[in-house]
Design brief:
Layout lengths: L2 E5 L2 E4 L4 E8 L7 E7 L6 E6 L6 E3 L7 E6 L4 E6 L8 E8 L2 H4 L7 E2 L3 E6 L1
Parallel strand pairs: 2-11
Antiparallel strand pairs: 1-3, 3-8, 4-5, 4-9, 5-6, 7-8, 9-10, 9-11
């Protein structure tokens, strides 16, 4: 049974930082691309960042570029999202997702496996 478990969310002031983690089990982690997505209240889920299975390729949404960095540790079956210079508009539930194809891992609702999400709240 595949499980993706996000952690690291919380309440932070604007300008602060958080690091989200997503621990995977039940799959061969090094063969899966991993995506991060977020959904704010009343809004559609949106893409945040994606990283390839090897970690050699990664890209992020324009709205977070230069502030958020995605990385992974295949030895720990974990993907991370380092979030710096947080803004109130970054407030959302953040989800990680896994798919064997890089393209699908970057598509909202396209990935095969999803975590339950972790809340990030940025106060002004």
């Amino acid at each position: 049974q595949v499980q993706l478990v996000e952690s690291g969310g919380g309440l932070v002031q604007a300008g602060g930082s958080l690091r989200l983690s997503c621990a995977a089990s039940g799959l061969t982690f090094s063969r899966y691309s991993m995506g991060w997505f977020r959904q704010a209240p009343g809004k559609e889920r949106e893409f945040v960042a994606v990283i390839s299975a090897s970690g050699m390729s990664a890209y992020s949404a324009v709205s977070v570029k230069g502030r958020f960095t995605v990385s992974r540790d295949n030895a720990k079956n974990t993907v991370y999202l380092q979030m710096n210079s947080l803004k109130p508009e970054d407030t959302a539930v953040y989800y990680c997702a896994a798919d064997s194809q890089f393209r699908r891992a970057a598509q909202t609702y396209g990935a095969e496996y999803w975590g339950q999400g972790t809340q990030v709240t940025v106060s002004s």
